[in-house]
Amino acid sequence: MHTQSQATTCAFVRNLTFQTDDLGKEATLVLMFHTNMDCTYQKSFPVIWRTTTFGEEGRYSMHATYTNQLAFSRVQVEDGNVVNTETCVHINDGQKTTLTRTDGDFQFSVPKHGVPGYLEVCNDTGFVQDIAISIITPGDSKPKPVICLKDVGDDSEVKTKFTPKLHAYISSDHQETSILEGAICTDSIWEQDLAKLPECTTLTLSREPATGHYTITQEGVI
Questions:
Q1: Less Cβ around it within 10 Å: N or C end of the chain?
Q2: Residue among 97, 71, 69 nearest 159 (CA)
Q3: How far apart (Å, rounded) are the C-alpha atoms in residues 180 and 174?
Q4: What is the CB neighbour count within 10 angstroms for residue 198?
């Protein structure tokens, strides 16, 4: 994996546990992020971060770890799914990097100061590229894409903000690493800026039998 590193300031980790207890109906939980861009579903597309299916009866749980160490990744897309993120560079808020191609090898430049509050990437490869904002989690062999910037033209630059606001949905139509081309048909059942959570958080998914509505409740919060 072609990865370049830069030191991270104000790094944090969020360990999330989603749990159910006799949910009453099998349900698939889908977790994803959005960018703060007006062109979402036009040039910027969410990538499904995590999914899991909870059973109708009994206790189930899923653990997810988020770190605010981000990366830009050159990605390959097949059948609407991200399948390769090997060329990447660690990126911090207020930094910019350039993707180049030399003798068939792709590489991101060492990030330099950019516009505060934004992540910036320039494509200087001579070809249109798909580039992702990815999360680097300790123990993972590759960064995990969460936002795909599709069809970034040669000699063009993308400037975007990223807030770790996690959205949760109940949907059986999506899988991890799939690119969401349009909004999920159901409403989000939970949204939270992960920066505002403690390091470890337990969340309980429940279903109201009379209405079929799902809710997520943070444990230990009155």
A1: C
A2: 97
A3: 8
A4: 9
**Is-contact 123 72, C-beta < 8 A?**
no
By three-state DSSP, how is residue 176 classified? coil
CB-side neighbour CA atoms (13 Å) of 50? 16
Residues 140-182 have pLDDT tens digits of: 888 999 999 999 999 999 999 999 999 999 998 889 999 998 8
What is the model's pTM?
Answer: 0.90
109 DSSP assignment: P
| Residue from 10, 16, 18 nearest 68 by CA | 10
Please choose, from the candidates 88, 183, 76, the residue with its C-alpha nearest in 3D space to the C-alpha of residue 133: 88
Contacts of 8 by beta carbon, 8 Å cutoff, 6+ apart? 68, 69, 90, 92
- pLDDT tens digit string along 69-78? 999 999 999 9
